[in-house]
Amino acid sequence: MADNPMLSFVRLDQHYPAKRPAAVRAEDFAEIADRYARDDAEAQSSRCSQCGVPYCSTHCPLHNHIPDWLRLTAEGRLREAYELSNATSTMPEICGRICPQDRLCEGNCVIEFSGHGAVTIGSVEKYITDTAWAEGWVEPVRVGPDRGQSIGVIGAGPAGLTTAELMRARGYEVHVYDRHDRAGGLLTYGIPGFKLEKDVVMRRVERLRDAGIVFHHDFAVGRDATLADLRGRHDAVLIATGVYRPRAIKAPGVGAGGIVESLDYLTASNRKGFGDAVPAYDDGALNAAGKDVVVIGGGDTAMDCVRTAIRQGAKSVKCLYRRDRANMPGSQREVKNAEEEGVEFVWLSGPEAFHGDAQVTGVAATRMRLGAADASGRRAPEPDPAGGFRLDADLVIKALGFDAEDLPTLFGSNELSVTRWGTVRIDHKSMQTSIDGVFAAGDIVRGASLVVWAIRDGRDVADKMHAYLRAKAKAAAAQELVPA
Fold first, then answer.
1. Is residue 3 one of the residues assigned to a domain?
2. Residue range(s) defining the domain that contains residue 235
3. Number of structural domains the chain divides into
4. Last residue of a domain, one of 135, 161, 189
5. Dihydroprymidine dehydrogenase domain spans which residues (predicted)?
């Protein structure tokens, strides 16, 4: 056993880090589970079967070397495990916390298919890098020789930060422009602390700032500078804004007070956690305390909203979703966590109208049933003749997803080509937009997606920008050699 610590899944059961009791964790915004003790991390890592075709790696957007760093962890070679994990991901401890492992790596684990329960990959990934931070193994960004070229990154979310780090390491001057007063994008203001504590994000940002990356906060492209202005300042520009325009509900009464957007609600809560002054929270507009709350939607953002409302002391919290549990897009683990904490799910139901004039008092809902499969392969919801019902509500939170903002107009750049969905159109070989030297990556290209895909896109576009800038520098050098 000393020679081969692996394949212990035949004798060791799957074991995740223990969650705090639901009643206790619902009182605060701390993460709901601690990280593994070392012995537990080693034991759970040793359950890996070291299969010849690692489906976990194949189904990870970053293609992390998962079996390899699991083996290193099982062998007690934790620093090597961290270095291997860090080689493919700029934010491994963040992915370990918020990736939907049940749909990606763990959901495709070979021993899961055999009925033994998947290796707890995400929890081990979190343990590895949290330990690396605690032990001082996370080194400063190693900045290469100055190349005399600069890039501008629009958006300080995971795609933008990943590109900024990788380009700074190659020796480029990097400026990041973001509309918020803190970097991190949805990592900072969209995802609640019980899934991702904010010091985890801020220490990543500080590491980038220490590397010489310049952050321009409260900077809105289109207001403080046009896209053309940024092109004039930099040798290349990356658009990594994400998608922030909330999808609308068309129903009578939707304009009543107390019907709010999910991101406004989550941002207010996260700002309050930072200690910021948040008038809309303090006056109750974006605060669920003592209220009957109805959240409309079935994705991860809806799960964030219902669990936040519980922690704010809501009187009741219901989640209204038009499909059934098996067909919801959000993580099943998050649904389970929410149910443990007191959220009631109202499946196969959709809003038909909102009661109340100046202030919402209830939601008139219609029952749904699942019909034929739609283009996504999921069965499409349709109204059920069985009729409807009413839910009392003092606060309704719309969490139906996000679309792209009108960037050509917003950026004052009509030549920026977009798709029919409003996402930025790119040449997928070069990752350039319709404007020379302007690249795009992350959700603004692929639509609302996962953080891990944004990191992957940031990694890919850094390679493309580097190739472009090297060619640009070479062409400039050649031009200087041409006789006048």
1. no
2. 150-244+403-481
3. 3
4. 135
5. 25-136
Looking at the structure, tell me whether residues 71 and 202 fall in a common domain: no
**pLDDT band at residue 3 under the 50/70/90 scheme:** low
| Location of structure tokens 């003790």 | 37
- When pLDDT is averaged across residues 65-90 and rounded to a whole number, the result is 97
- 1 pLDDT tier (thresholds 50, 70, 90): very low
Q: Does residue 432 sit in helix, strand or coil?
A: strand
CA–chain centroid gap for 6, Å, is: 32
Give residue-wise pLDDT tens across range 219-269: 999 999 999 999 999 999 999 999 999 999 999 999 999 999 999 999 999
Under DSSP, the state recorded for 484 is -
The whole-number average pLDDT for the span 51-77 is 96
Helix %, strand %, coil % of the chain (to 5):
40, 20, 45
Alpha carbon distance 75, 269 (integer Å): 42
pLDDT at 484: 65
Average pLDDT (152-165) is: 98
Residue from 279, 373, 337 nearest 100 by CA: 337
CA nearest neighbour of 309 among 393, 183, 400, 202: 393
Based on the fold, state whether residues 107 and 195 are members of the same structural domain.
Answer: no
Statement: residue 110 has pLDDT above 60: yes
How many C-alpha atoms does 266 have within 13 Å on its Cβ side?
27
Taking a C-beta distance cutoff of 8 angstroms, is the pair 245, 403 a contact? Answer: yes
Instruction: Give me the CATH number covering residue 383.
Output: 3.50.50.60
Which residue from 203, 60, 336 is spatially nearest to 70, judged by alpha carbons? Answer: 60
Residue type (1 letter), 202: M
At 184-196, the pLDDT tens digits run: 999 999 999 999 9
Query: Distance between CA 321 and CA 327 in Å, rounded?
Result: 10
- Which backbone phi and psi does 84 adopt, to 5 degrees? -75, -40
